Amino acid sequence: MTTPNPLPRPSEEFERLKAAWTRPRGWRVFTDINNNIIGPLFVATALLFLTLAGLLGVIIRLQLAWPGLEIVSAAAYNQIFTMHGTVMMFLFAVPAVEAVGITLLPSMLGSREMPTPRLGAYAYWIYLLGGLSFFSSLFFGVAPDGGWFMYPPLTSKENSPGINTDMYLLGIGFIEISAIAGAIELIVGILRCRAPGMTLGRMPVFAWAMLVFAGMVIIAFPAVIIASTLLELERAFDWPFFLPERGGDPLLWQHLFWFFGHPEVYVIFLPAAGMVSMIVPAMARTPLLAHSLVVLALVATAFLSFGLWVHHMYTVGIPAMSLAFFAAAGFAVSIPSGLQVFAWIGTLASGEKVRLNAAGLFVLGFLFIFTLGGLTGVMVSVTPFDWQAHDTYFIVAHLHYVLIGGMVFPLLAALYHWAPSIGTALSERLGKWAFWLLFLGTNLTFFPMHISGFMGMPRRIYTYPAGLGLEIWNLLSTLGALTVLAGGIVLLYDIARNFRLSQGSSENPWDSGTLEWMDTGNHGPRSLPRVASRYPLWQQPGMKEQAEAGGHYLPMTLTGQRETLVGTASAAVPQYVAVLPGPGYAHIVAAVGTAGTFLSLALEALVPAAGFAAIGLAGFLRWLWTSTDLGPLEPREADIGEGIVIPTYATGPVSVSWWAVSTLLVVAGSAWACLAGSYLFLWLVNGDARWAARIPELGWGLAAFAAYVAAAGSVIWAGRGLSQHGRLPSLFVLVAVALLAAAVAGEALALWEAGLRPREHVHSSSSFALVAFQGVHVAVSALMMGYTVARAWAGMLNGERRLVFDNSRLFFLYTCAQGAAGLVLLHGFPRLL
Amino acid sequence: MKRLLPLLLLAGCSGPQTPLDAWGPQADRIARLSTLLFTGGGVILTVVVVAITLALWAPASWRKRMGNIRFVIGMGIVFPAVTLTALLAHSLGVSRALVTFGGEEPMRIEIVGRQYWWEMRYLDSGAVTANELRLPRGREVELTLTSADVIHSVWIPNLHGKLDMIPGKANVLRLRADRVGELRGQCTEFCGEQHTLMAFPVVVHEPSEFEEWLARQAAPVPAPTTPEQQAGMRVFGAAGCGACHAVRGTEWQARIAPDLSRVGSRLTLAAGALPNNLGNLAGWIAAPQDIKPGNHMPAFARSLSGEEILALSTWLDSLR
């Protein structure tokens, strides 16, 4: 078989490639942004938070071992269980799966790197800094104490005056930025950075799972950010949203939170299912059975999961017959999960003798625990059953079965399975010990909770009375927790003793069929393989050796910089070679600034907050100014193999950064929809009267609308000028920014003139919230356009080198459209009443 | 059916706070549905475990039969679709029966949730009590659930599922107790530092006995008879207890804290935190923050002497 590039390769080619991807030495290794270093750091940090939150769980179990124990006080206990849940969900589960994705995907997809590595590195650093400071709040007694879902009015200023709640709202809201940044990177990377020939149909199931995961993150996570922002506005500025005295509704929080919170469960589970779909074929040494159905199941789960949020609200008094819809959706979502379970079982049956190594044991443990958790999941979606089970230890049992079974066990299987692909293998013997301790311990801890729940034990209590028959079940749970602890110690010991990151090992100990088992270095594969099947290492004999010798695509660095291949989303046809950034510290400065800003705000220290914001902004600007949009480099185009000649520069819709901005706009749109939904929900709760009585004046609305249209037109005109004359007409851009600012100011003024004051009623506060949200977008647009003009003045922007303008224009036009939609809502909707 | 769940049997299915020991028609329907779900779940879990075992270790011919797409579609799509559709139809029937329950005119009681106690208002008679729900056997009751501060949730599992108390809303729970005796209800929505100690006894009486109890609750308290009781009543006024608590038939009518009209007859103190007796009552007045830290009752150990506290407790204890 002929190779895309002739073999053997010239010797200096590989040296040049390695030189471009050299990892800095010593402590400077932390300035690197390569996924091979950021990914494992990300995984390690997630495991750190798993350990910390797990220890909190052990404290909980010790306190509950017997009635009346008071190892920690009620107040401390409430902080501990809140932090246990919050840290597990936000600082362990979501980052962990994202981390595995960032670590494995480039090599699994036959790419050199994720397309936006610095964004990924920034996401990691804010996660590390934000997460550690958030966790530290526990040591100062200011940790959140309202439960991980933080229901108002318990968390309103009156009932929770301390900063504990602010730590949660600002801390978690900010850590979600990391999750969203990571999701954007994953979406663009999975869709655009795959080896030539890896069509969506040939893409590994794990990549599908991560794509669906990231899609769910960008739709669902804005809901919790909006909910946190609204509650923080209520706490800090007395804008009512959840207070019934001023038209608010505590249930608004629950709808927003669970619109995020229920998909969150599948956000955690789907990537884990994707890992299992990779490990099971390796165990059985045969392709996954029903591959297409499994992919379909992932997508179906994602869709259905957005119709399930009311599952957490069966007891708030929604009429039982309306709940039937959600019960049916709950049943429906169990079908794709069941399908996957039987696809895995069928795969195990269809292969050779199944290899039961440590990873395999964790997969089997997963199948048992997750199935049990899934079955209790069907039970709790049966409305009358849930009226009894809700908020009891039955739910505690269910959610731990689903999350530990559905996420932790697959993650540990992944750890044992993929450790040899990124470093040294873990010990099979210790792994089996860890498995049995964790498997037995998990069941011993959580199975009895089904019973204690049905014996009358509510969740979130720091002790319980003797005589209800709860003693024995709680004691068993505590013994189970100690068994889990022992398993955790064995696991950590195994990692500490045996795991070392390393590169250049070509070991494929499990004879897997996918690309991550090729020989890779910091640069990813030696050359990017030509893919023609789902399991290239099994189904394309000789390909591995050819690609490792440099015979496939892009075996060189063209520009002398770090590069990777970007292709079409569905068929992975190469389109251009993207030049990637290398090591630097600007993103770390930006991360320190961002984390410091949010932490200072939580501590109500406004001056330091402003200082940190300035530092963060400086970091961002340096990062952007010095190493984005370098413009076309030499050679402008090159043959990457097989006579495919593609450019080394791209702007507009073909570029990955345009895709990243577009994805960001989906995030913004989802957040806006949550705000608009809140506005309409509050109208539904309050009735027409207030809305009909205070309609903002139409003249103002029309003027603002015209300003948005003119602003958009002005920027489009500027773009046309740039295309035609190769120079940016800066004046048009500045006029556009002024028009945009005038439009949002007009929107606010119209509300004020109509007599709306944000503190008096939810009608006003929700209207102003929409305008404030628009104001933030206007400010960002102004910043982006100001930066664009500065680039033009500095001679770094012209008819060809115009990525900055194209991306800023996209954001700007979105802002205009969002503003216009807001006007239609605020001015049009009340007139329909 | 319970054969499959010996653990549950071992635990015993009876108790003052369990959904499995139904004392009324509502809880009974849910308990039967639960048994069905547990049984079905147990069967399906067994099937999956057997399938995994066969997939790993069965003879090649068996494994071959499982390792194809028909097996995946049959077990993974057709089987759950059929069983879940049946379950949906059945559970909707149960839901309907639960929400359309009742025909007679119910007795109406409003329960107001507060951090961390309950106010029970018998709307038909005007009687007010706290931290204790007394019901007549065999009579339909409509509980109107509201909250004065944060979200709480009422759960009396032997009678019905739980329902939240949400500020600004009134939720309605209809139930009936068919057995005489004592049960336990508890708050199940986390409501703050002392969410744990927010429970209440539920006492079901024979109807005649209940009427007697209710009439006493609605009547003004009798005047104190012994000198110590008289002193205790004076302490109540002097210490400012009446700024928060009400005692029926006196000048004290505040609603900030539990109504104390017949506090001596209650089974527990501080929403199920302590059994009610003279010693506990005095201890509670002296140091409520040691017993239930974070509740809204101030400590009187410093501002009142031991004798005063004892006199006050004696008077309150006499209100039965």
From TrEMBL, chain A:
Domain of life: Bacteria
SUPFAM superfamilies in alphabetical order: Cytochrome c oxidase subunit I-like, Cytochrome c oxidase subunit III-like
Record has Nucleotidyltransferase as a keyword: no
Gene3D superfamilies, per the entry: Cytochrome c oxidase, subunit III, four-helix bundle, Cytochrome c oxidase-like, subunit I domain
Recorded topology in the membrane: Multi-pass membrane protein
Transmembrane portions of the chain: 37-60, 87-109, 121-143, 167-193, 205-231, 251-276, 288-311, 323-346, 358-380, 392-418, 430-452, 472-493, 605-625, 658-686, 698-719, 731-756, 768-790, 810-829
Coiled-coil region: none
Pfam families given in the database record: COX1
Signal peptide: none
Cytochrome oxidase subunit I profile domain span: 15-544
Cell compartments where the protein resides: Cell membrane
Keyword terms of this UniProt record: Cell membrane, Copper, Electron transport, Heme, Iron, Membrane, Metal-binding, Respiratory chain, Transmembrane, Transmembrane helix, Transport
Family label: Belongs to the heme-copper respiratory oxidase family.
Record-given protein name: Cbb3-type cytochrome c oxidase subunit I
TrEMBL record, chain B:
Record keywords: Copper, Electron transport, Heme, Iron, Membrane, Metal-binding, Transmembrane, Transmembrane helix, Transport
InterPro entries: CcO_II, CcO_II-like_C, Copper_CuA, Cupredoxin, CuRO_CcO_Caa3_II, Cyt_c-like_dom, Cyt_c-like_dom_sf
Major subcellular location class: membrane
Annotated localization: Membrane
Location of the Cytochrome oxidase subunit II copper A binding domain: 104-216
Coiled coil: none
Record has Metal-binding as a keyword: yes
Pfam families: COX2, Cytochrom_C
Name of the featured protein: C-type cytochrome
Species of the source: Sabulicella glaciei
